[in-house]
Design a protein that fits this description.
single chain, about 80 residues, mainly beta, 5-stranded mixed β-sheet, 5 strands, about 40% strand
């Protein structure tokens, strides 16, 4: 399984567990593209799954980065180190 982080907005996200991480998905009627991963977290204190991050497909790379960093304090998986 892959832990999927969907960045929905500056104060909104979803966490899902999927078998794979396609490049483009429809999530609640909205297109999302794979922006990071799936990657394995480095040395955590518990067993981990690979993590993949999705954002709305219409976002530019800069907008994605802004959203990612805005949610990083709220979503622990976004602050982990990855191999």
């Amino acid at each position: 399984m892959i832990e999927i982080i969907l960045l929905l907005g500056k104060d909104d996200w979803a966490i899902e567990h999927w078998e794979d991480a396609p490049d483009l998905v429809d999530y609640k009627g909205r297109p999302f593209s794979l922006r990071a991963g799936p990657r394995m977290p480095v040395a955590t204190d518990h067993e981990s799954e690979p993590v993949a991050v999705y954002a709305p497909d219409e976002l530019t790379e800069e907008e994605f980065q802004d959203l990612f960093y805005a949610l990083q304090p709220k979503v622990p998986e976004l602050a982990l180190k990855y191999s």
